[in-house]
Structures are given as structure tokens and as C-alpha cells.
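Hi everyone, sorry if this is the wrong subforum. Our group has a chain we'd like a structural model of before ordering constructs, and none of us has done structure prediction before. Sequence below.
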Amino acid sequence: MDIGARIIPLLLAGMLPAAGALAATPVTQTACSLLPPTSWLRDAGVTALSMQAREGRCVVEVTAVDGKALLRQQQMLMVLAQKLCAAPAEATVDDTQVSLQLRLPRRCAARSSQDLFAGDETVRMPPRGVSPRYPREAMQEGLSGRSLLKAVVDAQGAVAAVVVERSSGHPVLDEAAVEELRGWRFTRTDAKSTVPELSIVRVPMRYELVE
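Answer:
Right subforum, don't worry. Here is the predicted structure as C-alpha cells:
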């Protein structure tokens, strides 16, 4: 009997709580108070992530298991910093140590992450009829698994950044799922609701080989 392959993209019902969850997290008013808690934005491939105020600016330091996980984390942080501060952050990457240091602008717009996601009560739906690609390498090795992704979606429905919240156990499947999700455009189910600058969605992608 021939062995076939399929990928099943699923979207969890509703949105991951954004404004409420962030607002409920107590923070000390420092240069890093603008960013969400590290547990909220951390990629599964990141082994260490810290934030601290230095000389009036927030400095984020990240170490990851590989370069792709580090890049996913960097993109997420850069998107949030740009939106929060209306100016780009500065990043220094150490390829040898698979680490980076990200420095937020000294002069920031001083908006909190609660404000950035405030008013988000809209459920966003993924595009219909998508046909994700099953990685050839994963097919040849008989790999299957489920990746849970966390994405930040802008007001137009485009995916601005993606991190892996829970790994499938296979980096090739995680990266394939991330690349797939980056190309999606989400639509709103309620055109009358207030549209925040950014929304949060959690998307599980399951890859499986079937006979």
C-alpha cells in the first residue's frame, strides 16, 4: 500500500487573550515595562531570555538552540519594539554563541503592551483552502508531529512575526510550519469591532503521514 502524506493546519477557536492577560501581569515601571512578560513572547527554541534596564533603555539578551530559533525570537522582539517605540531597536547577533542583544531606543513613545493590544475582541480566521507543504526531508525520514505557533498579526491581517510556542520535536517541521504561517492573511469575523494595531493568534499545525 502506498504511503501518503498530509499536513493538517488547525486554528484554535477564538483568540489568545491579549489585553486582559497582559494587563493582569504586574510589572515594575522601568525601561522594560513596555514589553510583554518574557514567558509570553518566548520561542520554544530559546534557552535564555532576559530583560533589564541599562542606562535608560531596555536591553534584551537571548540565547537559542539554533540560528532559526534565534531569528524567530529576534523578529518578534523587533516588531514589538518598533510598534511600542515608533523606532527600530538595535540588535547585535553572535553567531558563534547563538545569541543576541537587543537594545530598545532611548527615546520611546512610552506606550505599554496593554495599549498596543487594547480593544482586541475580534476573532481572526485563517485563509481558506490553504495547501501547506510537507517538507521533503521530513517525508523521507518519516517524521510527523504537531507544532503550536504564536503569531502577531497586524491591523491588515498580515502576520508580522511568529514564534514556536510548543515544538513538534522536529526542527524541520517547526520551521516549515512557521514559514507557512508567515504567508497567511487573517480576516476579521466582525468588521465593526475595534481593530488593535496588533493581535495575537495561536495556531497548531499537525504534520502526519498516512497510509
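For your construct planning: Residues 1-5, 9-28 have pLDDT under 50 and may be disordered. The CA atoms of residues 46 and 64 lie 4 Å apart.
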